[in-house]
Amino acid sequence: MLKKIFLLLILSAVILGCYAGDLNLKIQFAQTEGLRADDRIIFEKNHIGKVDAISYSEGGDYIADVKIHKGFKKSVTEHSRFFIINDPSEKGRKAIEMIKVAEGGAPLVKGAMIEGSTRFALLLGQMEEDFGKDMSELSRKINKLSDEIKQIPESEEIKSLERYLNQLKEKMKKAGSAFREKIQKELLPRLQKEIEKLKERLRKFGREKEVEPLEVKMDEIRKI
Predict the structure, then answer these.
(1) What is the per-residue pLDDT for 48?
(2) What's the pLDDT band for 16 if we cut at 50, 70, 90?
(3) If we measure between CA atoms, which residue out of 61, 66, 59, 54 comes closest to residue 28?
(4) DSSP readout, 62-118?
(5) Which of 65-79, 94-108, 173-187, 207-221 shows the lowest per-residue confidence on average (mean pLDDT)?
(6) In CATH, which of 2.40.30, 3.90.550, 3.30.300, 2.60.40 is domain 19-115?
């Protein structure tokens, strides 16, 4: 009897220890965008964890092993989304930002593998979900997309814009005609304006041809 009680106490201590500790997760990203070990994880301006390590998967993606501080574990649920940003507090470093797309939800468990996103892709998805419900909210998200594009660091502009255009192209292929028309009229002109600004800056260095792949992708999107 005493042996059983002793074993139950040990098991309870192990379970309590796991619950009380930090939460270790794996986040899968298509690109690291300069993310590295010790970069922060941010939620609502709070520093909630850090990147422990980054590895390359057999599937060609990158896996970020991250640690969420135990005080924020309850905030990390199935409705959490993660994407890479420029760290707002540490110049030259990246961070992973977590946002919640809905309240509640089941907490993520230790060791869970999550698919990372980009802010651009997340906003596109939310725009499609909101389409037809609240046009003012849709316009607000188009403005946020435009702001996201304007904040790309110069050193990453071509690569980031190309990635955004690929995401937009895939979304447009699957979207309804009304949604595509909204994007064609409101978002594409803003994208074109940013591409033209980039081309003008590169022309000063004789590098304007580097923008040609972006222009090709824009033409492909317009034809969808």
Answers:
(1) 96
(2) very low
(3) 61
(4) EEEEEEE-GGGGGG-BTTEEEEEEE-SSSTT-EEEEEEESSS--PBPPTT-EEE-B-
(5) 173-187
(6) 2.40.30
Global pTM value: 0.65
Closest among 63, 75, 55, 57 to 25, alpha carbons compared = 63
Averaged pLDDT for residues 60-88: 93
| 159 or 152, which is more confident | 159
What is the distance between the alpha carbons of residues 138 and 144, in angstroms, rounded to a whole number?
A: 10
Exposed / middle / buried, residue 75 (Cβ in 10 Å: 0-12, 13-18, 19+): middle
CA–CA gap between residue 12 and residue 22 (Å, rounded): 17
Domain ranges of the chain: 19-115, 123-223
Beta carbons within 10 angstroms of residue 204's beta carbon: 8
